[in-house]
Specification:
The complex is a heterotrimer of chains A (about 300), B (about 325) and C (about 325). With about 300 residues, chain A is mostly helical. Helices cover about 70% and strands about 0% of the residues of chain A. Chain A contains 11 helices and 2 strands, in the order H-H-H-E-E-H-H-H-H-H-H-H-H. In chain A, a hairpin with a 5-residue loop joins strand 1 and strand 2. In chain A, helix 9 runs antiparallel to helix 11. In chain B, helix 5 packs across helix 6, helix 6 crosses helix 8 and helix 8 packs parallel to helix 9. Chain C is mainly alpha-helical. Chain C is built from 13 helices and 2 strands. A two-stranded antiparallel sheet of chain C has the order 1-2. The longest helix of chain C has about 40 residues. Chain C is globular, with a radius of gyration of 24 Å. The chains are: A mainly alpha (about 300), B alpha/beta (about 325), C mainly alpha (about 325). Chains A and C meet through helix 6, helix 9, helix 10 and helix 11 of A and helix 1, helix 6, helix 7, helix 9 and helix 10 of C.
Chain lengths: ~300, ~325, ~325
């Protein structure tokens, strides 16, 4: 409980560009730095999966069913160890996880970027044009956002069928509404600011006004939403794959790996589900930690 | 005003050397820096200063409402003969709203919007007295009529947003007076109201405190309000009291250059067409204030001597004192 | 107040009609209704008969009326797999899902609000920070994985609780089968309900904390303390009454989301609710059930929204009084 602070002006600080200040503020929180480091590690692991995996888990020639369901730490036939055990096909879990990370991240990022572009365009246009168009778009957004994402995704998969492209379509459809709503709120606030009046007075073309003036100022909240949404997209794809309605077996994301291991859980062979789950967890948690700090740092109301 | 017999009795409040500092990440803010004054029974004391002068913080300190990162660093607050700083949290709570009460500036924000008026009034009584809710309700009803609110029974069942600003402030006054405190601190209670309502509220508070003999500390930045209201006045600047004295004396013959500046900057009718007088410069930041008289940057009378902090010394009329090396009236002794 | 309820109810009916139109268009116009509603294993004669009885040879608007009247009579088609009314199947499973969702809400509220309050009162202490850190976990962990972990720890390793299924049921009010009234039923309920509750729990903790933090900065808290009220009254009455209003709204709206998330939890724990039915139906391409599920869920959502709106205006005196004037 705080009594109001007395009026006191702060001493002048050395001048930093806004970007520098954002970075400095971000790095000030050790938890956020931890999240960032973790995230970088995850992304690197995904990018360099073929290089760092002891085995290519999808090269059938390298697999031996005799190696299946070995516990973590078991020795591997060609020297070395199955550090995280093997699954029911004899795949090295560590390698499967690295490759799975790739797919999970790729799907998550692609769907987020697509949804971002669509949502941004719709939201900005709605805010700028206003009138019936805006009401219509926002109604659709509201209705869509009042349903849980998983439900919409499931129904879309049920209607469209399965496959990677369809999963991405489902993810994009689920997500665009968040971006549209966020950017529209931000744009409405910005629209009333003086620089927008000035731009209109200068008779700049609408697309120029929207993209050069309106958009940059609406970006900070979008960055936060996008970051959180990548994590949400990854989680949603994992859930869909776990339910057997996500990516096909040829593109095994972490969700599918976990689904594979589900049946062995009750017989104590936990590692087939557990480790991919940890990898998923680390990915999502690190993204959320970074997003949390970004939100605090970019929030103009919390600026001093 | 006070008559001679009352003036002899013990003062209701004695503040001595009060210091309230805020320990922020940017540095130490000395919001209240060595403040001392007394308030006699039934007396009206005006606490005048601009924003940032520490007057509100003084009020909160007296109420015990200073929260981290601030705290009262030193000094004594003797209310009704009891040293407040030695009291524990529960004992302090029993004083608040009971022996000492506060009226805040913005009545819109001080009443809880989701609770009914009667709830907010009755709880103030029940927090300190063991009475039945029914008799508490009766007392609340009386208090509302006393502050001039018509149809109090209906009003008790209403919510704050159904009242106008002036009426909300009347309710706040009624709440402050519920437990017949010895001292009421009014922190700019009329600033947020329309000018026409201001006068009414002023009158209301004056009348009530005189009827009940309650002492009043009126915090304001507006000298004209003080003029007709206060018996004595303290002028604050940068967390310190720079001048004290009877209201008449200080307003007629101010001792401190700042007080003079304040008086001069009030637009008066006979100066039409002339430039408004201003005190040059700006109020200093209370953060890491440099030593010396805080007013010296803006004072036309400042000299090297002012680089040392002056003490309060008696000057001018009876009971008047000033914290200045170059006061406008002669210093005694 | 009554006017408000009537007005909102009318709006809800309109939304319901619009949604039913969307579902209809999705099934009959975009999708191929013949594939969706008629069993693919039916032979020519059965197909022709089904087409005629479903009116699929009639113009679209006539089909919509048939669809609507069917819906009002509780006829949303027959399941391919079970050969019984699709709606009937769903209603049969609804109590299980409701039981899960209500239990999860209870857990989230009973734990979430006090924890959030605590975190809001001491934001910088160790308690506050660890509660907030925990809430981030609650958000980040995918529900299905937490479910798996719960099974792994409590069922496989510790053998304290069963790993799937619903316990024995008894009839509540002689009508609704519930499982929490028996010890065995409760044991089966604990894990899936906790799993479902986690996301909401994290959400409530964060909301309550933010609300408390903001409320404490308000002037009315200062004023309440200036009146000499005890701390417990200031927090328990003044702060709580203010933050509860938006929180109740969120709890209500989240109930709809819970029904959605339950799909996953029911799959992980083999809980025989509507969600599991949906997944099975998608896998078996039992489309009438999917359509029926959609309509039921849409109806539930609209109902929940309506109830929450009414509840909100009942709780916030500022809204209530302006609405009654309008």
């Amino acid at each position: 409980m705080a009594s109001p602070l007395p009026v006191a002006s702060a001493p002048a600080r050395s001048v930093q560009t806004p970007a520098q200040r954002v970075v400095a503020d971000f790095l000030a929180n050790p938890v956020a730095v931890f999240g960032l480091v973790l995230l970088v590690l995850v992304v690197l692991a995904a990018l360099f999966a073929p290089l760092i995996s002891p085995q290519n888990p999808y090269d059938l020639a390298q697999l031996d069913v005799m190696d299946s369901r070995l516990p973590p730490g078991s020795p591997a036939p060609n020297g070395g160890h199955f550090w995280l055990g093997t699954d029911d096909q004899g795949r090295d879990m560590l390698s499967a996880i690295f490759y799975g990370l790739r797919i999970s991240l790729a799907v998550g990022v692609i769907s987020t970027v697509c949804a971002l572009v669509i949502g941004l365009t719709m939201g900005l246009t709605a805010a700028y044009v206003g009138g019936k168009f805006e009401t219509l778009v926002m109604r659709i957004v509201d209705i869509q956002l009042s349903f849980p994402a998983i439900l919409i995704a499931l129904i879309l998969i049920a209607v469209l069928g399965q496959g990677t492209g369809k999963v991405i379509t489902a993810l994009v459809t689920v997500q665009w509404a968040y971006y549209a709503r966020t950017v529209r709120s931000a744009a409405l606030v910005e629209k009333r600011r003086e620089y927008m009046e000035a731009a209109r007075c200068l008779a700049l073309s609408p697309s120029r006004i929207v993209f050069r003036h309106l958009l940059p100022n609406c970006l900070p909240p979008m960055i936060v939403v996008a970051t959180v949404q990548v994590a949400a997209a990854i989680a949603l794809e994992a859930t869909l794959s776990f339910l057997g309605l996500g990516l096909p077996i040829t593109e095994p994301s972490l969700g599918l790996l976990i689904a594979n291991g589900y049946q062995y859980l009750l017989s104590g062979k936990y590692w087939i589900s557990f480790f991919p789950g940890i990898a998923l967890l680390l990915t999502i948690v690190s993204i959320n930690l970074v997003a949390d700090q970004l939100r605090d740092v970019l929030n103009p109301r919390l600026q001093k | 005003m006070i008559d001679a017999a009352e003036a002899i009795t013990e003062p209701v409040l004695e503040v001595d050397g009060l210091r309230t500092h805020f320990f922020t990440k940017a540095g130490v803010v000395k919001a209240v820096d060595d403040v001392s004054f007394t308030v006699g029974r039934g007396e009206v004391l005006g606490l005048v200063g601009e924003s940032g002068s520490g007057k509100s913080m003084t009020g909160y300190s007296l109420m015990g409402l200073i929260d981290p990162p601030g705290r009262i660093v030193s000094g004594s607050i003797i209310l009704d003969g009891i040293e407040q700083r030695t009291l524990n949290a529960e004992q302090q709570r029993r004083m608040r709203g009971n022996r000492i009460a506060m009226i805040f500036q913005d009545p819109m924000m001080t009443l809880n919007p989701v609770l009914r008026i009667d709830v907010q009034m009755i709880e103030a009584i029940l927090a300190h007295k063991q009475v039945t809710p029914a008799s508490a309700r009766l007392r609340a009803r009386e208090a509302l009529s006393k502050v001039g609110i018509a149809s109090p029974d209906e009003r008790l069942l209403a919510y704050p947003h159904q009242f106008s600003g002036g009426m909300r402030q009347r309710v706040a006054i009624a709440i402050a007076m519920l437990n017949r405190p010895d001292l009421i601190i009014a922190d700019e209670p009329t600033t947020a109201l329309d000018v026409t309502i201001q006068g009414q509220i002023l009158y209301e508070i004056q009348k009530l405190t005189r009827e009940t003999g309650t002492a009043l500390i009126w915090i304001t930045h507006d000298l004209s309000v003080i003029a007709g209201l206060a018996d004595r006045v303290c002028v604050m600047y940068a967390g310190r009291i720079v001048e004290q004295g009877s209201c008449e004396e200080v307003l007629a013959n101010p001792a401190h250059p700042y007080t003079r500046g304040l008086l001069d900057s009030v637009p008066a009718n006979n100066e039409r067409g002339q430039r408004l007088k201003q005190i040059p410069g700006m109020t200093p930041s209370l953060l890491d204030l440099p030593p010396g008289c805080p007013f010296r940057e803006r004072c036309s009378r400042a000299t090297e001597a002012c680089e040392v902090s002056p003490e309060m010394r008696p000057a001018g009329g009876a009971g008047q004192s000033v914290r200045c090396f170059h006061p406008l009236v002669p210093v005694h002794g | 107040m009554l006017v408000f309820i009537i007005r909102r109810s009318m709006q809800s009916v309109v939304v319901l009609l619009v949604m039913s139109l969307l579902v209809f268009v999705g099934v009959y116009a975009v999708g191929n209704p013949i594939d969706i509603l008629i069993n693919p294993q039916a032979d020519q004669a059965e197909r022709a008969q089904a087409i005629a009885s479903l009116g699929l040879d009639k113009p679209l608007y006539a089909q919509y009326f048939t669809f609507l009247s069917g819906a009002l009579h509780g006829d949303l088609g027959k399941s391919f797999v079970h050969a019984t009314s699709a709606l009937g199947l769903i209603l049969e499973r609804m109590p299980a899902t409701m039981e899960l969702a209500i239990s999860a809400t209870l857990i989230a509220v009973v734990l979430g609000i006090p924890l959030g309050l605590l975190a809001g009162l001491k934001p910088n202490g160790a308690t506050g920070r660890s509660i907030m850190a925990g809430s981030i976990l609650g958000f980040s962990l995918p529900t299905f994985w937490v479910g798996l972990m719960l099974i792994m720890v409590f069922a496989v390793e510790l053998h304290w609780l069963p790993s799937n299924g619903r316990g024995p049921t008894t009839l509540l009010f002689g009508l609704i089968p519930v499982s929490f009234m028996s010890w065995d039923g409760l044991k089966h309920l604990v894990l899936p309900a906790t799993n479902l509750a986690l996301f909401n729990l994290a959400l409530l903790i964060r909301l309550t904390r933010a609300g408390t933090h903001e409320a404490l900065l308000q002037d009315y808290v200062k004023f309440a303390r200036a009146k000499g009220l005890t701390n417990s009254r200031v927090i328990g009455v003044h702060v709580l009454r203010n933050i509860l209003i938006p929180i109740v709204t969120v709890i209500g709206l989240q109930f709809g989301a819970l029904i959605g998330f339950a799909i996953v939890t029911e799959s992980v724990f083999a809980w025989p609710g509507m969600g599991k039915l949906l997944i099975d139906s998608i896998n078996f391409l039992d489309r009438p059930v999917i359509v029926a599920y959609l309509l039921v869920v849409v109806f539930l959502f609209i109902l929940i929204n309506l109830v929450v709106d009414i509840l909100y205006s009942a709780l916030d005196p500022r809204v209530r009084i302006t609405e009654s004037k309008g």
